[in-house]
Amino acid sequence: MIRTLLIALSASCTLACTSADLTTSSAPSCPAEVPFATTHSAGLTIHAPQPPGWSTQPVEGGGLVLHRFETIEGADPPFGMATVTVAIFSPASTADAASSTLRILRPNESDWHRTRSEEVQICGNTAHLTTGTNVVSHHDYLEFAYPLGDKFYPIQIATQTPVANVSRYRADLDAILSGVRITAQ
């Protein structure tokens, strides 16, 4: 589902995007009633959809975390949770160097099972989408090098959800992943 979503959004994004305004979505794909969480970091502004029930917190050093936790009566386990992190890392001098930083950050544990790994285009920039699970959680990583001036900022949008909660939060996760906007300040 994420691949289909990103391909459709990337096509519309490419038409409206400049190198200083990167978005994984066109504005109409995120309902107007969903508020956006915003934070500023490293000369960039991050806007992420904040569906009902989700809390947000800026990340020290650059980025934003969206989190959902709830008690689910009669469920096993009796709670649900999901997290999305938008992280901006120290800039690199080339897009390849920024992408290398992101590859190092992806999980390589022996219990990590990658179910998808592919390149996608977002506003004319190559992004990497990796999806997988380990024993207890499901992860999506959307990673790209954001060009700003003569530097490239490694940016990672990562989801983490217990395997038992993926179907409960998939629509919210897709809305957040597809609606993140990053602009130069």
Short descriptors:
about 180 residues; alpha+beta; four-stranded antiparallel beta sheet; single chain; disordered N terminus; seven-stranded antiparallel beta sheet; 11 strands
Description:
This protein has helices at 2-16, 95-105, 166-179; strands at 21-23, 36-41, 44-49, 55-58, 63-71, 79-88, 113-122, 125-133, 137-148, 151-162, 181-184. Residues 1-32 have low confidence and may be disordered. It contains three helices and eleven strands. The chain is α+β, with helices and mostly antiparallel strands and 185 residues long. 22% of the residues lie in helices and 46% in strands. It is globular and about 55 Å long. A hairpin with a 3-residue loop joins strand 8 (125-133) and strand 9. The strands form two sheets. The protein has a seven-stranded antiparallel β-sheet.
Sequence-ordered SSE layout with sheet pairings:
Blueprint: H1 2-16, E1 21-23, E2 36-41, E3 44-49, E4 55-58, E5 63-71, E6 79-88, H2 95-105, E7 113-122, E8 125-133, E9 137-148, E10 151-162, H3 166-179, E11 181-184
Antiparallel strand pairs: 1-11, 2-3, 3-11, 4-5, 5-6, 6-10, 7-8, 8-9, 9-10
